[in-house]
Design goal:
With about 130 residues, the protein is an alpha+beta fold. The protein contains 4 helices and 5 strands; from the N terminus they run αααββββαβ. About 15% of the residues are buried.
């Protein structure tokens, strides 16, 4: 179903609004709990279906951080993420774009690189030992 053919949904709008209002990168379960505050009868399946649709339409970003739980981001502008290896927190990195990495990759690949997803790993401020 295309974006133009997608029927309006208050629950979907609530999911988008929540994701755009937070700098956290919540899991589907966290989103479900937040949306239930407004729509108590929403099902977890409805949240998952709407997250898949919003991701497919490019209205949100799905992050696969390696911990087995996908996280979601309402900020669709190009940006990078830091993942804490100790607590699992996902943090937006405010830094200059490194889009030239696609040019470098293309120079070493017999094909065409169109983009990349870059995650940075380490310890967040709260997890760095004193």
């Amino acid at each position: 179903m295309t974006a133009a053919a997608t029927k309006y949904s208050r629950q979907r709008e609530c999911i988008k609004e929540y994701l755009r209002s937070t700098r956290e990168h919540p899991t589907a379960d966290t989103i479900y709990m937040k949306v239930r505050e407004v729509y108590p009868n929403i099902s977890l399946g409805t949240v998952y279906r709407n997250l898949a649709l919003l991701t497919e339409q490019g209205e949100i970003i799905k992050l696969s951080c390696g911990d087995g739980c996908d996280r979601f981001d309402g900020n669709t502008a190009p940006h990078y993420h830091f993942i804490c290896r100790q607590c699992g927190r996902v943090i937006d990195l405010d830094m200059e774009p490194i889009e030239h990495i696609n040019t470098i990759a293309n120079a070493h690949f017999n094909g065409r690189v169109d983009g990349n997803i870059t995650y940075f790993y380490g310890l967040c401020r709260e997890c760095v030992p004193d």
